Amino acid sequence: MNTPQLSVVIPVYNEEQGLQVLFDRLYPALDKLAIAYEIVFVNDGSRDRSAAILREQFQKRPDVTRVVLFNGNFGQHMAIMAGFENCRGQRIVTLDADLQNPPEDTGLLLAKMDEGHDYVGSIRRQRNDSWWRHVASKAMNGLREKITHIKMTDQGCMFRAYDRHIIDAINSCKEVNTFIPALAYSFARSPAEVVVGHEERAAGESKYSMYSLIRLNFDLMTSFSLVPLQMFSMLGMLISVFSALFFVFLVIRRLMIGPEAEGLFTLFALMFFLIGIALFGIGLLGEYIGRIYQQVRHRPRYLVEAVLEKRDE
Ligand code: UDP
Ligand code: MG
Q: Which terminal CB of the chain, N or C, has fewer other CB atoms within 10 Å?
């Protein structure tokens, strides 16, 4: 029991309606794999009965269940981080609590790992999300791949398997804002992907709005790449060269044609365009500075209220 072959890490936030169904499907699915496993639930400060339900489940299966209880809501990725720090398996699978990915497919991920991969991502077979999420995620994927060189067909899917050495590397990172699949990818020797099933959320509702999806993507690009920032200095350079040429052009016109007052609105348009770019640039700088600020504060990334686990005698 000391080092199970498999740890399944599951973040839980206000999932009281879905948890029982999850237990009913997850435990039998893992029992069927016939390997030593443990399930690590991380309650991310749920305000419903989720924590109580997890406690009950721990009483029922203390041999294979661990529960980490946060005393606040620190976000899905911090919850997974805490799960990583509290798991002991040789291989680690992350799974959402909402059953959008069937736990029965865990075997598929592990089989792919048997082929010698240390990171197995997943692609949702057919996505049952709303259309705008579909379009948005396609666009973001392309952009992310260009900027960060992280190849991930389906970044929204958390159902992934990692080798122990990747988890150890992640545990040694002290990043405040991060996107775990991308972080893990950057440590992987031989990443692979498999296709897994995908279902509509069984119960409860999605914790992500359009706004938080945009935030997540900003985090993703700025945490893993300096390209957005560098693009800005390149753009700034191009614009200054262009403005310098424009200035020379105006000076020549002044000398040849004499004073003229037309073209005022062209100048306005040009100016607003440049102001817009400048504002965006300042915002982008802010993204990085904000990140530095969060990092230098050295606040604990999450606070654990209790860990329910069976003590090994
Ligand atoms: N989650 C979490 N903390 C949060 C938000 C979400 O632990 O602040 C968990 C949630 O319980 C679920 C997983 O993260 O297990 C994915 O959340 P959700 O299904 O709402 O995301 P979506 O599938 O809509 O991307
Ligand atoms: Mg979900």
A: C
